[in-house]
């Protein structure tokens, strides 16, 4: 449990909560369901997870002079050159369980950066515009957490589209017991009045 009186502990707590929420959105899905493209741009639950693990490995690694111990497991620069969406889908030889396990190892790697450095530790994001490349650990934790929570929101909707599973996280959905089908009918009626 993070020390919620410590600024770094608070930031780390929210980052970890978002990680857990994302992994939870894949709970109970088979390979096909986890990979299935659910939007016109191909968004899929396993692809979101793969993207997020690559983002964390980059921001908490090279930004602070560290390299993930097994970089061959991450999407390479060459793969991105061939396909700019390379981190948004699982290849045939990648499995849901394997990518979840890799994400957990990336999180341990990122956590080491967070634990070893002070919040004002300088870093450099080489792929950002030159005038914005200089950062601190605090900025990167906030940046990655914001990015991750955005993707968890996408995963919420994709999972709801798949099987109606809704909620914030395991053990606390934060969704009231409600007549959702009646609610949708009421909202549809309201919307049609403006058609």
Features of the shown structure:
195 residues; two-stranded antiparallel sheet; 2 strands; mainly alpha; globular
Topology as a string of helices (H) and strands (E): HHHHHEEHH
Q: Could you say which structural class the secondary elements and strand pairing correspond to? A: mainly alpha
How far the N terminus sits from the C terminus, by CA atoms, comes to 51 Å
In percent terms, what proportion of residues is strand? under 5%
Average pLDDT number: 94
Secondary structure tally: strands: 2
Oligomeric state as shown:
single chain
Based on CA atoms alone, the radius of gyration comes out at 19 Å
Helical stretch tally: 7
- How helical, in percent, are the residues? 40-55%
Overall geometric form: globular
Describe the structure.
The chain has about 200 residues and is mainly alpha-helical. Helix content is about 55%, strand content about 5%. It contains seven helices and two strands. A two-stranded antiparallel ribbon has the order 1-2.
């Amino acid at each position: 449990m993070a020390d919620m009186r410590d600024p770094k502990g608070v930031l780390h707590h929210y980052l970890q909560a978002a990680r857990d929420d994302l992994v939870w959105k894949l709970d109970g899905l088979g390979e096909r369901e986890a990979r299935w493209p659910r939007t016109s741009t191909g968004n899929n639950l396993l692809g979101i997870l793969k993207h997020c693990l690559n983002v964390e490995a980059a921001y908490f690694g090279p930004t602070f002079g560290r390299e993930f111990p097994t970089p061959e497991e991450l999407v390479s620069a060459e793969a991105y050159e061939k396909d700019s969406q390379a981190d948004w889908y699982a290849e045939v030889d990648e499995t849901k369980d394997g990518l979840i396990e890799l994400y957990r190892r990336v999180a341990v790697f990122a956590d080491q950066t967070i634990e070893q450095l002070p919040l004002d530790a300088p870093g450099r994001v080489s792929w950002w515009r030159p005038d914005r490349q200089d950062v601190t650990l605090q900025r990167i934790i906030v940046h990655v957490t914001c990015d991750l929570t955005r993707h968890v929101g996408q995963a919420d909707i994709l999972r709801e589209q798949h099987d109606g599973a809704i909620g914030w996280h395991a053990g606390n959905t934060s969704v009231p017991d409600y007549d959702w089908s009646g609610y949708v009918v009421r909202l549809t009626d309201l919307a049609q009045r403006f058609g």
